[in-house]
Amino acid sequence: MKESRLILALDVYERERALEIAERTAEYLWAVKVNWPLIIGSGLKIITELKQVTGLPIIADLKLADIPNTNRLIASKVFEAGADYVIAHGFVGRESVKAVMELGETIIVVEMSHPGAGEFIQPATDGLIELANELGPFGVIAPATRPERVAYIRSKLRPEIKVITPGVGAQGGKAEEVVKAGADYVIVGRSIYTSKNPRESARRIFEEIKEVV
Ligand code: XMP
After folding, report:
1. Using CA atoms, how far apart are residues 107 and 126, in angstroms rounded to an integer?
2. Would you kindly state where each structural domain of the chain is located, as residue ranges?
3. Segment 149-165, tens digit of pLDDT
């Protein structure tokens, strides 16, 4: 089939539910993203299990924002568990981000998708884009809820750095619009995992993206 650009944000607590949803939707996904709820609910070994069940890359969305040594201590265990990518905040400074990048593929948050992003993060976005261009991570996080910001971020970013966008569905963003604006990957959580038929919801978003690519 594919080359999917869809990432499932698997924000459930329960191991069995997570594995079942991941298995059912895997055909339409590029990767599975795990965040604190699933790691708190099911333990770090869920990363290893999800990899085995889906065969897909696993993104650990920990939004690391600590001193370099603590970022390193956390990221090393997460990569060891099998995560292929770790998400880190850039606002804590380049050394904290480098500590993660030295251990594995990293994604830097340059702007968030919720309304509160306008308070502190958006004013810092230009500097965070510069940081990403300097360090060359796998990708950056940009807000699917604001396609015009995704287009702006894409235009300022080195072309090989991927733009990864949460905020589609429950937060109001549209997959079609954000891909047209330049997103390489689209993250969707609640619209898939709370749906009566997660596989069908994933398929629909996958098709929507395919039409515009
Ligand atoms: P929903 O349910 O809203 O889930 O589709 C979105 C997922 O993405 C995470 N998220 C973000 N992660 N920067 C990030 O690094 C963001 O701006 C952002 N907005 C949402 C969210 O925690 C959930 O896992």
Report:
1. 16
2. 6-212
3. 999 999 999 999 999 99
pLDDT tens, 93-109?
Answer: 999 999 999 999 999 99
Does the pLDDT of residue 172 top 70, yes or no?
A: yes
CA distances from 31 to 57, 58, 164, 202 (A): 5, 6, 11, 12
Q: Three-state DSSP class for 35?
A: strand
Q: Domain 6-212: what homologous superfamily?
A: Aldolase class I (3.20.20.70)
- Nearest residue CA, atom 10 of ligand 1? 166
pTM for the model stands at 0.97
Enter the tokens of residue 159: 């072309």
Q: Give me the pLDDT at residue 188, please.
A: 98
Cα Rg of the chain (Å, integer): 16
Separation of CA 137 and ligand 1 centre (Å): 19
Structural contact between residues 28 and 206, judged by C-beta atoms closer than 8 angstroms: yes
Catalytic: 51?
no
Span 102-122, average pLDDT = 96
Backbone angles phi, psi at 59, to 5 degrees: -105, 125
**CA distance linking residue 53 with residue 103, whole number of Å:** 24
